[in-house]
Amino acid sequence: MSEVILEARDLQLRFGGVQAAAGASLTVRADERIAIIGPNGAGKTTFINLCTGYIKPESGSVVFAGRDITALSPRAITRLGIGRSFQIPQLFIENTVMENLLLALSAREGSWSPFLRLDRHPKIDEMWALLDIVGLKQTGHRIVRELPEGMRKLIDIAVALALEPKLIFMDEPTSGVSSHEKFQVMDTLTRALDARATTAIFVEHDMDVVARYASRVAVWSGGRIALEGTPDEILNHPEVLETVIGVGV
Amino acid sequence: MPPEMIFLAALDGIAYGSLIFLVAVGLSLIFGVLGVLNVAHGSFYAIGAYVAASAVLAAGGMGLPTWLAFPLFLAAAILVGVVIGGLVEALLLRRIYGKEEVLQLLVTFAVFMILEDAQKVVFGVRPLFANAPMNWLGTVEVFGIFYTRYQLILIPLVALAVLVGLRLFLRRTSFGRAIVAVTQDREAAMAMGIDATRIYLFTFMIGASLAALGGALSSATTSLTPGIGSGMIVLSFAVAATAGLGRIEGAAVAALMIGLGRSIAVYFAPEFDVLIPYLIMVAVLLIKPEGLFTTVQTRKV
Amino acid sequence: MTRQIIVGALLLIALIVFPLLSPWSTVILTVALCEGLAALGILILLRAGQVSFGHGLFFAFSAYVVAFMAAAKFGREVLLLVPIATAASGLVAALVGLFIVRYRAIFFGMLNLAISMVFFSLLEKLFSITGGADGKRVPRPTLAGMTLERESFEFWMFYITLALAVIAALAVARYLVSPGGKALEAIKSNETRLEYLGVSSRKVLYGAYLTSGLLAGLGGAIIALVSGHVTPELAYWVRSGEFVFIAILGGAGGVAGPFLGALMFQIIRGYAAVYAPETWHAVLGVMLLVIIFFAPAGLYGLILGRKRAGDAT
């Protein structure tokens, strides 16, 4: 077994009278691909938000690579090596796809020289390679605003990957991709993650994707990880079938 | 500083704070409902002052009794708020709801430039002074110092009435509750069938009238010169920002704080009295960036 | 890109030639360049989606530094006064910026306004130091050690200002296409993503604010020298509003925009002095509304035939 890279311990948070997190705990090892599944509207994104510093828990802690990151800002957490893509893609929509990725590469390299033109960035080849991972090389010169949501979601992932994180959170990575392209995207994405030895945690609704790409599945319910196990165990669990997948047993 | 001096400074501060409360609460109300920071708000204050002073001088010229000034103040405030405020909302602001905040700032800033010149053309640039209403109310003596009843009693009473009145209006009347509903959740309120267009228009008129009322009341205490509006917009912004934009009761507390702070400064370092409101604001914002009375809302990703 | 270079080059040639043909225009053109410099600073902030109604502060601060230094007979030399006064404004921007970059949009705009109005009030109130509303006279300094007559001083000051403006415009153009300049645009479009790239949006904005303060400071220092007089009016909100107006008029798109806007502004001011001397700020207000509602890319955008601001660089 490889070493523990992320450990969320007993995260608690209420807002507006709702218990958004009620003792959420999860231990993640470096070689894992964890799928988080759960009923719609259960607040799976809240868990990502808590782990990446977007919201602070009232109690509990998040430890990343041996370091307590609970109180850190998203910026500091990103710098430590956690990347993130979003349920609603967060991109610079008035800029081109290229510029979005090159800005991420500049952030990673710390290349902020005022004499460097962003569109002549030394890492431009890497930029095209990143776009290739999500199969969107042809969109490089397009303005993000003009692209459909599904493409934006993949670009959002490419931006997160550009930072070369040790661990990446992906919030419904394939939700905007047509069903026959899903596996193709996930195949190249998984290969890229393998090549970089990047740990991945992704929220997913498509159980076919979960079954095929997750090494472990965590079920988010009632503000915590209610169940954990291999895809086989979880996807055949009667309670999960009923509450998450919506199949009565 | 002997205790009675502190007391006297406090009396000054309350009078001053009451006046800026009237203006700031209008600014805050408009922001709370429309989501627009009205840079032209100071102009409503200035125009209210000029209209009121002109009306009082005209009434005096016709030999009408001085007490008539008080209903005239109210009439001037409502007139300015409804006519000019109504026009600004209906012709301009209505087109920019939901646009970038910077664009909204630029539009109200342009309105500010226009109104500042308009008042110079209509009312001239010579100082205007109509203090008859203040003298008519007489003075009272506190610790051997004479205060005008107008500043010591009337202005704070009006401010208090506005505070209580607004509170009752927003909580007890159906129109007021509709305004609150729009402030809290615009989309939900509209889904419930609330006519947002009408709410926006009336809120803007109320807010503008309050600024004009502040101006009308101030017209009896100082001489009016061009530029009073620009001073007031930054001051009322300081109050509203200290309280938290959109906070009505908070604006009253912040106005008092700033009023008291300033009047104490007048005793110690009169050259720097203009600095005090901003120092208070900066100090508050450094500790609570959203203002004193705002509960932080979680953004959504 | 090429069309922008052509527009910029034509503007530059016109500016070089015009004063030779009509010497009366040098002071007006220098003033336009100074206001263009300040508006260039506003343009940088507009890139980040921020607007300042208080850059008169930096404009006035350096102008008063020039006035004090020249009056104190300390460093009565243009080549010394301009850099020192500009740096002084930069220092003020560095201090104010620490506080102001925590805020966006409404607060950013209004806090700038508030700070500049405090400075304006102090300039008026501290009569014994600043000369109050009457301001201070600025004795004409030497230029590179030479004591010049008024006409030749104005003549040389224009060309120096023009050279500085060209350098500033080119440097800003470079900055805007650099990663830092693009990060500035990112503040406007998605600060959340910027933070999740590990980039501090405050630091990015701080750099932009400092640059904008320096540009306004440079403009203010020169305007004090060529007008020979400084007044609190340099810090007044009307002045700050004019910079915003010029930046919007010139279009938020390109670096030649603010200078084009500043020239147009002088022409409008000239006509307004004749036809609408009392209401000329109202005229500006109306024009601002017309630009915002009907030509959001500004004048520069109209010339280049662009529909959207932000396309041109």
Question: What can you see in these coordinates?
Answer:
The complex is a heterotrimer of chains A (249), B (301) and C (313). With 249 residues, chain A is of the alpha/beta class. Chain A has nine helices and ten strands. In chain A, the strands form two sheets. Chain A has a six-stranded mixed beta sheet with strand order 6-7-8-3-9-10, sandwiched between helices. A four-stranded antiparallel beta sheet of chain A has the order 2-1-4-5, with helices on one face. Chain B is globular. In chain B, strands 1-2 form a two-stranded antiparallel sheet. The longest helix of chain B is centred in the N-terminal third of the chain and has 32 residues, at 3-34. Chain B is built from twelve helices and two strands. The termini of chain B are far apart. The model of chain B has no long low-confidence stretch (mean pLDDT 89). Chain C has a domain at 22-236. Chain C is built from 14 helices and two strands; from the N terminus they run ααααααβααααβαααα. The longest helix of chain C has 28 residues, at 150-177. In chain C, 58% of the residues are buried. Chains in contact: A-B, A-C, B-C. At the B-C interface, α4, α10 and α12 of B face α5, α11 and α13 of C.
Range of helix content of chain B? over 70%
Radius of gyration of chain B: 19 Å
- CATH architectural arrangement of the largest domain in chain A: 3-Layer(aba) Sandwich
The SS-based structural class of chain A is alpha/beta
Largest interface, counted by CB within 8 Å of the partner chain's CB: B-C, 42 and 42 residues
Series of H and E elements of chain B: HHHHHEEHHHHHHH
Number of strands of chain A: 10
Overall 3D geometry of chain B?
globular
- Average of the residue pLDDT scores of chain A: 91
Instruction: Determine the strand fraction of chain B and express it as a percent band.
Output: under 5%
Q: What general outline of chain A do the C-alpha atoms trace?
A: globular
Ranges of chain B where pLDDT stays below 50 over 5 or more residues in a row are none
Question: CATH superfamily membership of the largest domain in chain A, which one?
Answer: P-loop containing nucleotide triphosphate hydrolases
CATH class membership of the largest domain in chain A: Alpha Beta
Helix content of chain A: 25-40%
Terminal Cα span of chain B = 54 Å
N- to C-terminal separation of chain A? 35 Å
Instruction: Give a count of the beta strands of chain B, DSSP E runs of length 2 or more.
Output: 2
* Gyration radius of chain A, in Å: 18 Å
Average predicted confidence as pLDDT of chain B: 89
The low-confidence runs of chain A, each spanning 5 or more residues with pLDDT under 50, are: none
